[in-house]
């Protein structure tokens, strides 16, 4: 039975494309968003939703790593772990900027933003925690935009800064 596979697959595909899987969703469960938009945005996943069938997954072991060097992915982390990782990523990004490694720094800032947005998505919009998390996201997004500016990725900068300005009208710092 396919169950939630298309919704999970949609999120993983968006992440692989470097997009925020929660972007544009209303604050509701994944199935609610699917029914609201009538599509996952991927025709093959929509077909699985229309015609459920047993799925068989074939896994291939690509490498065996040292268990002490394991990097936990964000979906495996608890809220506190995510919040503890954000300042570390922010500092790593800052160090990389000083070394003029802008692409790597942008990656650190983006990872931190995604962690915060994931935590924020579990909060009720308008609540104090939701607002505070939003305030934490702004400087990271601005740092990301500065890196993109250095890399001459102007459309990326325009997209993010326009979104920030619309979201934070009246805030002089943004």
Explain what you see.
With 174 residues, the protein is mostly helical. It is built from 7 helices and no strands. α1 runs antiparallel to α3 and α4 packs antiparallel against α5 (102-121). 17% of the residues are buried. The model has no long low-confidence stretch (mean pLDDT 84).
Helical residues, percent: 55-70%
Secondary-structure element order, as H and E? HHHHHHH
- Using the alpha-carbon principal axes, give the shape: globular
Low-confidence stretches: none
Distance between the termini: 47 Å
Radius of gyration over C-alpha positions, nearest whole angstrom? 18 Å
What about the largest sheet? none
Provide the structure class.
mainly alpha
Number of H- or I-type helical stretches: 7
Q: What's the total number of strands?
A: 0
Keywords:
174 residues, PPIase_dom_sf, single chain, 60% helix, TPR repeat, Aryl hydrocarbon receptor interacting protein like 2
Task: Give me the secondary-structure topology.
Blueprint (H helix, E strand, L loop, with lengths): L4 H12 L13 H8 L5 H8 L28 H20 L3 H20 L6 H23 L3 H14 L7
Helix pairs in contact: 1-3, 4-5, 5-6, 6-7
Describe this structure in a few short sentences.
With 174 residues, the chain is mainly alpha-helical.
